[in-house]
Each structure stands twice: as structure tokens, then as C-alpha cells.
Amino acid sequence: RLDGAREKIFRSTLYVACHTLPGSAAKQRQQPQHSDSNFRGDAVNRRIAGIFAVILIAGVATTLILSPASSNASVSSDNDKSWIAKSNEYANVLIDIEKKHSPESASHDGLKQYDELISNDTHEDDIAENNERRAALDKLKAALATEQDKYVKQDLEIMIHSTELALRGHQYSEDHLVTYRNASAEVYQGLRVLLDDQVSADRRPAALVRLRKYAGLEPGFTPETDKLKKLMELQMGKPNIIYSARSRVETALSRNGLYVDGIASLFKQYNVPGWEEPYAKLKVQLTAYDDWIK
Asked: What is the pLDDT of residue 41?
């Protein structure tokens, strides 16, 4: 949920962020292919605020264990595993928020239980997610105040700093930016993570459920384009707001036909039945959204 963490000052800082799979320290997220933005179209700060909290946790952990300096610590293997597991436990507090509010990212990380879910791109969900992050921040600060292990403390400091930075960046965006949300690219990426050679065949039918939700065809779901338009209109109503650069928006718009056609190609390639009707509706919605952007 910008084209690079919402044109924010901290994109480069946060997007060295890591996704962590359950039970591992932290694993650098691969950049999705076929996109000129991050996984969610670099749409909203909240979409990157989730995993950045585990920035370099794995690297820090591994370096501390393997570096010559660490030999002076005389820490046993069992203790090493213990403190790494504890750091991961704290990191998972933030990662769980990311998975909840950006299920497409969770699917990208191989978590099958999120495959039929989509992000709820609304202002209300932004508020809810940021409230959860503030609560997590309080929990991490409380843990830091009592933590005795110096390595866990170091990781906690990284998470706290990153969370505070992301929340400030989000507030800046809320106050000053109208971010161009590329609906075609975002929808394509949300489907592409399921329709791929590296994804097991039993997960691919979930792409149809996700497609129907993007098109607003499932009960209780609003078309994705309507939600993104409402978010942008909310920002446009604020005074002294900064818009995305015209050249960047025009460049993105010129490529969107490739994304829209690419959605159909993916469903054909992986032989997922029943995609034609929701795709036809979604295509009309995406075209109308781009016309509105223009």
C-alpha cells in the first residue's frame, strides 16, 4: 500500500528490510519481478512498516556468532540458539502485524493460509495497523528495559528505531503526500505471487479467489480500484499537499496495459478455470481507474 515507500524520505532505509519466515532469524525479501515499485506498489507506509523491524536481525545474529570478536563472549551454542530464538520472538510481534494487513506479502513468503486474502486498502485499516504498531512499540520498549542479553538488546534497539521511523514516515505521508497508487501493478503482483512456477499447483486456485475479491465480486468486498481512489481523494482534500511527479505517473500508466494483459496470460498459463468473468469486470475497473488518474 509512492513508487518506493511512498516517495518517503526513508524508503532506502526501510527497504533493506527483511521478511522472516516462522522459526528463522530474518531473510531478505526478494524484489517482485515485473514491477516498477515494491510488492504492494509501494503504496502505503504501513505496507513496508511491517518487516523493516527485523532489519539485519539475521545478519546481526550471524555476525555476532561467527565474528572473531564474538569468541570473547564465551557463549555456548545452546545459549546462542536461545538468544536468537528470543530475538525472533520479538520480531514476530511486528511480522504478525505485517502478515495481517498485507496478506499478499505473506503469500509471497510461502504462507499458504494467506493465499485467499487481500489487503484492506482503507484509511480505517491504516489507522488500525498503526495503532497495532504503536502497541507493539510499547511492548518492545518494555522488553528492552528489562532485557539482560546484550545481543537481544541490540536487536530490540534496531526494531524500536525502525518502528519509530516508519510511524514518523507514515505521519509525514498522511500530512503531505498524495501517492499515486498503481492499481494495475498492485493487482498483478497480488496474483503473480500465486501464479508462478515456484508455487505449488495446489496453491494456484487461490488466485481466482483473490481475483474475485479485487474485482469486488465476493460478498463484503469493494472493488480494489474504488478503495484506492477513495484513499487518494482523501489525501487530495488536504491543504498544501504534494502530488507524485507527472512524468512518473505517465510512465506507469503507459505500462499498465502490460499488467492487465499479463493477468489474463497468467491464468491461461496455469490453467486456472473460471477467471474470465471476474477478469473482464476487473479490466473495466482498471481502465476506468487509469482514466480517472489521467
From this structure: 41
Q: How far is the C-alpha of 207 from the C-alpha of 188, rounded, in Å?
A: 10
Strands 242-243 and 177-178: parallel
Max Cα–Cα distance, the chain, nearest Å: 65
Residue 219 burial by Cβ neighbours in a 10 Å radius (0-12, 13-18, 19+)? exposed
pLDDT averaged over every residue in the chain: 81
Give me the mean pLDDT over the 51-71 stretch: 43
DSSP for 43-79? Answer: --HHHHTTTGGGTTHHHHHHHHHHSGGGGGG---HHH
- DSSP secondary structure code for residue 201 in this structure: G
End-to-end CA distance of the chain: 20
What DSSP state is assigned to residue 238? S
CA-CA distance, 216 to 214, in Å (whole number)?
Answer: 5
Q: What are the beta bridge partners of residue 177?
A: 242
Sign of torsion, CA 66 70 74 79? negative
Query: In the numeric block, which cell numbers belong to residue 235?
Result: 489525501
Instruction: Give 229-267 pLDDT, tens digit per residue.
Output: 999 999 999 999 999 999 999 999 999 999 999 999 999
- In sequence order, the 6+-apart residues with CB closer than 8 A to the CB of 80 are 65
Going from the C-alpha of 265 to that of each of 25, 93, 117, 192, 271, the distances in angstroms are: 36, 38, 22, 11, 10
